[in-house]
Design a protein that fits this description.
- The structure holds 4 protein chains of 4 kinds.
- Helix content of chain A is about 75%, strand content about 0%.
- Chain A is an all-alpha fold.
- Chain A folds into 2 domains: about 80 residues, NADH-ubiquinone/plastoquinone oxidoreductase chain 6, subunit NuoJ (Four Helix Bundle (Hemerythrin (Met), subunit A), Up-down Bundle), CATH 1.20.120.1200; about 45 residues.
- In chain A, helix 1 packs antiparallel against helix 2 and helix 2 packs antiparallel against helix 3.
- The longest helix of chain A is centred in the middle third of the chain and has 26 residues.
- Chain A is globular, with a radius of gyration of 21 Å.
- Chain B is mainly alpha-helical.
- Chain B folds into 2 domains: about 575 residues, no CATH class; about 30 residues.
- Chain B is about 70% helix and about 5% strand.
- Chain B is built from 27 helices and 2 strands.
- The radius of gyration of chain B is 29 Å and the shape is globular.
- The relative contact order of chain B is 0.08.
- Helices cover about 65% and strands about 5% of the residues of chain C.
- Chain C has 11 helices and 2 strands; from the N terminus they run αααββαααααααα.
- In chain C, strand 1 and strand 2 form a beta hairpin.
- The relative contact order of chain C is 0.14.
- In chain D, helix 1 packs antiparallel against helix 2 and helix 2 runs antiparallel to helix 3.
- Chain D is elongated.
- The chains are: A mainly alpha, B mainly alpha, C mainly alpha, D mainly alpha.
- Chains in contact: A-B, A-C, A-D, B-D.
């Protein structure tokens, strides 16, 4: 019971935030609504027993990435966007595309509803012992070690790229 | 004592040397370069000795075989492993290659001291060692072919070492192309082998052949054998593909000694001996082999008569000696062939190095007409050359005598006609060798003002008179001299009270010809008939002596005579001098037409019209299509996004639809 | 009274209590600060209001409340109001997971309870865990959200000083959050848990007879890094560039007055307290301290809390002390210090620690 | 008991909202944010499935997605800044040189 209520509550916040993101014309409002979405997603992760993911979601997404966005918005002092009609295709093709996409996924989910069951509220039953965080760590540093290292290299490259791109070239 | 001999170390070590010198040599001092080269070659030699000594006592003894954990080639059912194979045959080869190679490395240190591209030279030399050892130690034809091609490459690089000299570059190209022709045949032969045996592994093939009778007619085996033979003619400079070897003398003398006398050119003989199982079952092929060998021997010998360039004389004598070996294989006396191969490696290397020392002494002069009287000037060189000359001329008890005599004897038992050829060749050999000897070391010094257009970059720095070479060059000569004196002792035939050890040593590695073939019967005959053999030995000594006397008469007693004689038989002389116009003939028959076809057909028609047309057409078509498609590229990010979204939707929808309808 | 109700009531009581105590703490931190700074600068500090000016904070509070609350034109109204609230709320929330002591027997309800808002136990059917197992992460997350308060404040008030201030603030906070987080990893590696309560419990006992089992000793480098980063996070001297009066009036809260300003003010001091709490919990053994025999039950239960607050007090004092002594960094120096010195140092510390831990295991 | 499909539907909704935001917004920063929204939607279904299947690898994937998102944000924003410097605008309709 409690689970449903909480889920519906945060889901409502998520969708509201997302819609607000679309409707708002000023980027900073969109950004803040996106932050809201992310935080409530973190709450949903907690419901799904992924407390570590939830925490990281808040710290990394809401706390770092979105701050970066806000920071850039402030830096470029971006005003409200103008409603230019640059591309008709965006509506002519994209609109039906999105509708079709949404419809397809919904249909799929709802029709395979019987086969897929429920989610377990709260923390998962640990198979290998240790709580969620320990297990995730074990996975991350044992089974997924190589991808992990690769991503670290990716990050490194990204940092360098960002520095190179953003640095003003005096010459 | 470990189970695993780590044979792969033997080729690997020179490769490392080559890599080090090739990559970093430019920055090294010459001293370092030579240290690296020598070190790795010596290590490889030591390793080879150890392997040869240990192999018989390991596991099942010889043949010793080990695969590396990874394959060289995996194609469907065909798996060619990276395997190394050591039996009596390859033992001898590997010892000769590493040993002589090492000596020649030492020599080269002294000889190339003043050359540019010092590090390049040694990198190539080590590279050659690597490939040669791969060739010798391979346990299957493909890996052998790898080495085969590799030595071709190395010899190309080394012949063209003075790449800024046109003649050198051309000679390199010539050698490379001519070899390709032979290699092509070898390759075809390999394909047939795969098609017949489904494997390239020696042991596998020989195992399958064990109880196959000899082919009466021209069966698949015969064809394979002939293709292999043709490959061998390329590498071992036999008719019709011998033309590259004389020109190969453009390379530095150590190269000529190592590659074009001692080791690489013997690859063909090695290959034939290695394939003895196949050849012995293809009598017709064997006959062809024998005939080609004999013809080459005598042809080359006659050409050698008229040459004046000291190295060219040696080159032709090399060709003819190789002819001997091939002939030996042709009469199924593989052991004799290998035996001669070994001794030849010693004394021919010695001859070349000696010649190098002479050239070095007279400041790059290679024309014997401008030498002479060097006997006193460079005593050590003189003495070693003397030994070598007597050895090759077949004077007992020097090495050459035994090996050559063995071959002649086996030939006689097989076909007297060939024996005659070989016999004459022996005479010619001793004649032109002594001619060389007299012209170079006796009479008075006919030296021009030398140091000009020297084949080596170091003419100027000792244009002051003739001088003996440094000891680093002489030491290897002495060692080789000793070898060519006593090298023959391993093969003294029974008839002369020896045991012909090498023959018995090689027996297990070489499948003796089947009894029913002629060669087989000859073998039977050869076993007993000591007295006749003795007689033949006497004959060959005699002919050698005859050659000596003629040379003495013409070039020492009456030096002016040759001109008269040549003037009298001018046509024949010119014919011989110009090597029977074989090169010109090839030029007319093959090269020119080929060029014409490639220019007027392949280039102007096929390439320009067809291929370019197709390419341009494709380009134009795509351009046209793109011109239409670019309309989609509005350059607006959101439009692209729309397309992507629509596409994604389409994919998802399609997948769902598929999922539903099945 | 059914047990969940007891639980709820105790929770509410705890919240009220903690908030009250914190506010008072904040108030008297300001008093303390003014006093100590005064002494450092050889002045008296507040003396007029009450004995030793003890009532000064009260007066300030009243002043804040009664002042006119003006909102300039041309500000982004919603965010202008949201910002201080966000700042204050976030700094309050982060207190929620901090354990002040072991546990306490509540005579009235006849139950035990954790001295921690989110601590739960004492009645059947409650989750086994007496503490949320990612307490530290929650604090980090919440503080990282707190950045928005400052950033938005600066941006929404549509004034260059404020904007510059908040740009500086957010940049500085993002940069130093990395060093802060990484400096804690060392301790986490040794403790092997995110639960603050368990971290503290691992520090119980002694190594040598008199050296307590605190992480400050093995992790002193981490502690140093943490302290620096924490000062930067709370925008305190020597890292107070976002509100450097001499450079940009008052930084991000230039345009704010009365209660909204007070909120920022309180948020800052609350953050100081939070930070000190974390330092105490992670490096100084939390509430552990010498036990004093034969005291009444309630006191023995409260003794840990006293130790805890004592340690926090020390940190607050150091804060003020440093403010009284150190000058301010230049901005590039600040960034260089954060990125080029603290961050690599923290990473090195992590590597060394993990090696040691792995070797011990 | 909440059925898994709820989470999936929610994630689908969020994703589609992200897509439509991408299509509708003109401000390049907002568009970039809509990408983040889509990523988050995907993450949600990852976590939901992880819970449903009792396999934590889903979480690991979420981490990877976050890492990629972080890298993307860093580079992307840098690019946006660079674009803004040259074109003086954030409107994608005015930044349309992405063609032959």
């Amino acid at each position: 019971m409690l689970h449903e209520i909480l889920f519906l509550f945060f889901a409502a916040i998520c969708v509201g935030g997302a819609i607000n993101l679309v409707l708002q014309r000023h980027p900073i409002n969109s950004a803040l609504s996106l932050v809201v979405v992310m935080v409530s997603l973190a709450a949903l992760y907690l419901l799904l027993g992924a407390e570590f993911v939830g925490a990281v979601q808040v710290i990394v997404y809401a706390g770092a990435i979105m701050v970066l966005f806000v920071f850039v918005i402030m830096l470029l002092n971006a005003g409200a966007e103008e409603q230019s009609q640059g591309s008709r295709i965006a509506l002519l093709i994209g609109g039906p595309g999105v509708a079709l996409l949404a419809g397809a996924i919904m249909w799929l989910v709802t029709h395979s509803d019987k086969t897929i069951g429920n989610v377990v509220v709260g923390s998962m039953v640990s198979t290998t012992g240790g709580d969620n965080t320990h297990q995730v760590a074990r996975l991350l540093f044992k089974d997924f070690l190589l991808p992990f290292e690769v991503t670290s290299i990716l990050i490194l490259i990204a940092i360098m790229g960002a520095v190179v791109l953003a640095s003003r070239k005096e010459s | 004592m470990t189970e695993d001999l780590r044979l792969w170390l033997i080729p690997l070590l020179p490769l490392i040397g080559a890599a080090v010198n090739g990559l970093f040599g430019r920055r090294f001092k010459n001293r370092v370069v030579s240290a690296v080269a020598l070190l790795f070659t010596a290590a490889s030699f030591a390793k080879a000795v150890q392997a040869v000594l240990l192999a018989p006592h390991i596991g099942t003894g010889l043949p010793y075989q080990r695969m590396l954990p990874f394959n060289w080639l995996d194609a469907g059912t065909l798996h060619v492993p990276f395997g190394f194979y050591l039996d009596q045959l390859s033992s001898i080869m590997v010892l000769v290659v590493t040993g002589v190679g090492f000596l020649i490395h030492i020599y080269a240190v002294g000889y190339m001291a003043h050359e540019g591209g010092y590090y390049r030279f040694f990198a190539y030399l080590n590279l050659f060692m690597f490939f040669m050892l791969t060739l010798v130690l391979a346990n299957n034809y493909l890996l052998m072919f790898v080495g085969w091609e590799g030595v071709g490459l190395a010899s190309y690089l080394l012949i063209g070492f003075y790449f800024n000299k046109d003649s050198a570059a051309n000679a390199g190209k010539k050698a490379f192309i001519v070899n390709r022709i032979g290699d092509f045949a070898f390759l075809l032969g390999m394909f047939l082998v795969i098609q017949k045996f489904g494997s390239l592994n020696f042991t596998a093939i020989f195992g399958l052949l064990k109880d196959v009778p000899a082919e009466a007619g021209w069966g698949l085996l015969t064809i394979i054998a002939l293709l292999f033979l043709f490959g061998a003619t390329g590498k071992s400079a036999q008719i019709p593909l011998y033309v590259w070897l004389p020109d190969a003398m453009e390379g530095p003398t150590p190269v000529s000694a190592l590659i074009h006398a001692a080791t690489m050119v013997t690859a063909g003989i090695y290959m034939i001996a290695r394939s003895s199982a196949i050849f012995s079952r293809a009598p017709h092929a064997l006959e062809v082999v024998a005939i080609i060998g004999g013809l080459t021997a005598i042809f080359a010998a006659t050409m050698g008569l008229a040459q004046n360039d000291i190295k060219r004389v040696l080159a032709y004598s090399t060709v003819s000696q190789l002819g001997y070996m091939v002939m030996a294989c042709g009469v199924a006396a593989y052991a004799a062939g290998i035996f001669h191969l070994m001794t030849h490696a010693f004394f021919k290397a010695l001859l070349f190095l000696g010649a190098g020392s002479v050239i070095h002494a007279v400041g790059g002069e290679q024309d014997m007409r401008h030498m002479g009287g060097l006997r006193t000037k460079i005593p050590v060189t003189f003495w070693v050359m003397t030994i070598a000359t007597f050895t090759i001329a077949g004077v007992p008890p020097l090495a050459g005598f035994f090996s050559k005599d063995e071959i002649l004897w086996q030939t006689w038992n097989n076909s007297p006609a060939l024996w005659v050829v070989g016999f004459i060749t022996a005479g010619l050999t001793s004649f032109y060798m002594f001619r060389l000897w007299f012209m170079t070391f006796f009479g008075e010094l006919r030296l021009k003002s030398h140091g000009h257009d020297s084949a080596h970059g170091h003419g100027s720095d000792h244009s002051d008179g003739v001088h003996e070479s440094p000891w680093i060059m002489l030491a290897p000569l002495v060692v080789l001299a000793v070898l060519s004196i006593f090298g023959g002792l391993v093969g003294i035939p029974e008839a002369l009270g020896g045991h012909n050890e090498i023959h018995h040593y090689l027996e297990p590695a070489i499948t003796a010809p089947l009894a029913e073939t002629r060669a087989g019967m000859a073998m039977e005959a050869a076993e007993h008939a000591g007295s006749t053999e003795l007689a033949f030995a006497g004959l060959s000594v005699a002919v050698a002596a005859l050659g000596f006397l003629m040379a003495w008469f013409f070039y020492y007693k009456r030096p002016e005579l040759p001109q008269k004689v040549t003037a009298k038989i001018n046509g024949l002389y010119l014919l011989v001098l110009n090597k029977y116009y074989v090169d010109e003939g090839y030029d007319r028959l093959l090269v020119k037409p080929l060029l014409w076809v490639s220019r007027h057909v392949l280039w102007l028609v096929v390439d320009q019209k067809l291929i370019d047309g197709a390419v341009n057409g494709a380009g134009g078509a795509s351009q046209a299509v793109g011109g239409q498609l670019r309309r989609m590229q509005s350059g607006n990010l959101r439009s692209y996004a729309a397309w992507v979204a629509a596409g994604a939707a389409a994919v998802v929808a399609f997948m769902i639809w598929r999922g539903v309808h099945q | 009274m059914t047990i969940p109700t007891t639980y709820l009531i105790t929770a509410v009581v705890k919240i009220a209590l903690v908030v009250f105590l914190l506010m008072t703490g904040v108030a008297y931190t300001t008093w303390l600060e003014r006093k100590v700074i005064g002494r450092i600068q050889n002045r008296w500090g507040p003396t007029r209001v009450g004995p030793f000016g003890l009532l000064q904070p009260l007066a300030d509070g009243i002043k804040f409340i009664l002042k006119e609350d003006m909102i300039p034109d041309k500000v982004h109204r919603g965010l202008f109001i949201l910002a201080p609230v966000l700042a204050l709320v976030m700094s309050l929330i982060s207190i929620a997971v901090i354990p002040f002591g072991e546990g306490l027997h509540v005579p009235v309800a006849g139950t035990d309870t954790q001295l921690q808002i989110t601590g739960v136990n004492g009645f059947p059917g409650a989750p086994h865990s007496t503490d949320i197992n990612i307490g530290l992460l929650i604090i980090l997350g919440v503080t990282s959200i707190g950045v928005y308060g400052i950033a938005l404040a600066g941006w929404s008030s549509n004034s260059k000083y404020a904007l510059l201030g908040s740009l500086r603030a957010s940049a500085q906070m993002i940069s130093y959050e990395l060093a802060l987080g990484l400096s804690l990893v060392g301790v986490l590696l040794m403790a092997g848990t995110f639960s603050l309560r368990e971290i503290v419990n691992t520090q119980a006992g002694f190594w040598l007879p008199y050296v307590p089992h605190w992480y400050i000793f093995p992790q002193f480098i981490a502690f140093f890094i943490y302290l620096m980063a924490a000062y930067a996070e709370t925008n305190r001297i020597p890292f107070d560039l976002p509100e450097a009066e001499t450079e940009l009036v008052a930084g991000y809260h230039t345009e704010y007055s009365s209660m909204k300003f007070a909120m920022f003010f309180m948020a800052e001091y609350l953050n100081m307290i939070t930070v000190s709490c974390i330092a105490t919990l992670l490096f100084f053994g939390g509430w552990h301290g010498p036990q004093i025999p034969h005291l009444p039950q309630l006191l023995t239960d409260l003794l840990p809390v006293i130790w805890f607050s004592a340690k926090i007090f020390v940190f607050m004092f150091v804060y003020i002390w440093i403010r009284g002594t150190l000058p301010r960094f230049r901005y590039d120096q600040l960034m260089a210090f954060g990125w080029k010195f603290l961050l690599p140092l923290a990473i090195a510390n992590i590597i060394v620690t993990s090696f040691i831990v792995a070797w011990r295991a | 008991m909440v059925p898994l499909s709820w989470y999936l539907i929610l994630s689908a909704i969020l994703f589609c909202l992200g897509v439509s935001a991408f299509l509708l917004k003109r401000n390049i920063i907002t568009i970039f944010m809509s990408i983040e929204l889509m990523l988050n939607a995907v993450n949600l279904s990852f976590v939901a499935f992880a819970n449903h299947l009792g396999k934590l690898s889903g979480h690991v994937f979420v981490f990877f997605v976050m890492v990629v998102a972080a890298a993307e944000a860093a580079v992307g924003l840098a690019i946006i800044i660079a674009v803004f410097r040259t074109r003086e605008t954030l409107n994608v309709d005015r930044v349309n040189l992405l063609k032959l």
